[in-house]
Amino acid sequence: MVHIPRNTVHGFNYGEGGGTMMEVTSRDSTAAEMFTAFDAEIDAETDIATTLALLKKNGVTVVT
């Protein structure tokens, strides 16, 4: 179990074999909508530009 406060920069990575994630968010969070959009629109063949556009559309800022 990991708690990540709102507006905290974070990420996650699965090792070989994948994993399972359960997300619990507050009622005004948009994270659930973002993960739902990713499930519907992103697959292993999706390019980075499309992925970044979907993140931006869902309010995520990517810093490199």
Portion of residues in beta strands equals: under 5%
Order of helices and strands: HH
Percent range of helical residues = 25-40%
Question: How many helical elements?
Answer: 2
Structural class: mainly alpha
Computed over alpha carbons, the radius of gyration is: 13 Å
Low-confidence residue ranges = none
User: What's the overall average pLDDT, rounded?
Assistant: 85
Largest sheet: none
Number of strands: 0
Shape: globular
Distance from N terminus to C terminus (CA atoms, Å) equals: 27 Å
Q: Brief overview, please?
A:
With 64 residues, the chain is mainly α. It is built from 2 helices and no strands.
General description of the model:
By secondary structure, this protein is mainly α. The longest helix is centred in the middle third of the chain and has 11 residues. The radius of gyration is 13 Å and the shape is globular.
Q: Which terms summarize this structure?
A:
single chain, 64 residues, mainly alpha, 2 helices, globular
What is the element layout, followed by pairings?
Blueprint: H1 31-41, H2 48-57
